[in-house]
């Protein structure tokens, strides 16, 4: 059975007290995640170790929001994926559109970061997505193909521990999610594009959607055949809402798929 994924991207929010309250809130509503759907939270770097502690033995995984493309060296201000691993991280988001937009990250850097994350033993959550202008001018597939090829140019599909996230920039933080039909169409496009390199890998690869997911729209998005879960921003900061989204995700797993 292919696992489902729910990943919370906390962005530059939180502090020691609110992080603790958030994890306690999630645990109060969901004493144990279901093994058919993994739950991951991605705090800001300084809180990784706190989250390692808070999530120990809970079945909740921890990830970072970014990682250097180098494992060590004279790179002031950067964070090695090896450090993330040592502080309890198992995942790292790579190429989030806010990093592309505000930190000038490009496709090539995203590819190198993905490879460094894999080399350090992390699972990269590689983000791709078009802007509103790119969609309106009919360039969505051109952009997605370019981003995807850049990332997978560095990665051998044999690695297998990779998650791809489709995150249209116009849907992030806007409250307006992409429609389930758009999401399905783009996930299908991404999967087909990867199948050109490796058909079996493409079939196994989890492709999750991010952009204004909330409990109210989760089931319609997660029910689409090529959607394997979600990358959640603002709704991940509210324990009740995040767990409600998780429960919607569980609903989309056919009953005959035992844990
Ligand atoms: P959002 O963010 O859920 O607040 O739209 C998603 C993301 O940035 O990953």
From TrEMBL:
Pathway: Carbohydrate biosynthesis; gluconeogenesis; Carbohydrate degradation; glycolysis; D-glyceraldehyde 3-phosphate from glycerone phosphate: step 1/1
Family annotation (PROSITE patterns): TIM_2 (PS51440)
Top enzyme class: isomerase
Subcellular location: Cytoplasm
Species per Swiss-Prot/TrEMBL record: Candidatus Dactylopiibacterium carminicum
Catalytic activity: D-glyceraldehyde 3-phosphate = dihydroxyacetone phosphate
EC number annotated for this UniProt entry: 5.3.1.1
Protein name: Triosephosphate isomerase
Residue positions of the active site: 96, 167
Binding site for substrate: 9-11, 173, 212
GO biological process: gluconeogenesis; glyceraldehyde-3-phosphate biosynthetic process; glycerol catabolic process; glycolytic process
Subunit structure: Homodimer.
């Amino acid at each position: 059975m292919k696992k489902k994924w729910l990943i919370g991207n906390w962005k530059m929010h939180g502090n020691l007290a609110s992080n603790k309250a958030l994890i306690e809130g999630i645990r109060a509503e969901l004493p144990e995640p279901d093994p058919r759907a993994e739950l991951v939270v991605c705090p800001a770097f300084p809180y990784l170790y706190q989250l390692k502690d808070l999530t120990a033995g809970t079945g909740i995984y921890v990830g970072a929001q970014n990682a250097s493309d180098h494992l060590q060296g004279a790179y002031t201000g950067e964070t090695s994926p090896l450090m993330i691993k040592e502080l309890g991280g198992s995942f790292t988001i790579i190429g989030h559109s806010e990093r592309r937009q505000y930190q000038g990250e490009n496709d090539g850097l995203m590819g190198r970061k993905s490879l460094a994350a894999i080399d350090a033993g992390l699972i990269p959550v590689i983000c791709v997505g078009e802007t509103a202008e790119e969609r309106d001018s009919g360039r969505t597939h051109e952009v997605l193909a370019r981003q995807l090829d850049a990332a997978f140019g560095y990665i051998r599909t044999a690695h297998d521990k990779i998650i791809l996230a489709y995150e249209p920039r116009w849907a992030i933080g806007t409250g307006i999610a992409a429609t389930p039909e758009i999401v399905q169409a783009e996930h299908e496009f991404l999967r087909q594009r990867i199948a050109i390199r490796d058909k079996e890998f493409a079939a196994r690869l989890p492709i999750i959607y991010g952009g204004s997911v909330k409990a109210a729209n989760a089931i319609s998005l997660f029910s689409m055949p090529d959607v394997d879960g979600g990358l959640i921003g603002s709704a991940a900061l509210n324990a009740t809402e995040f767990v409600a989204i998780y429960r919607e995700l569980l609903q989309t797993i056919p009953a005959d798929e035992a844990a």
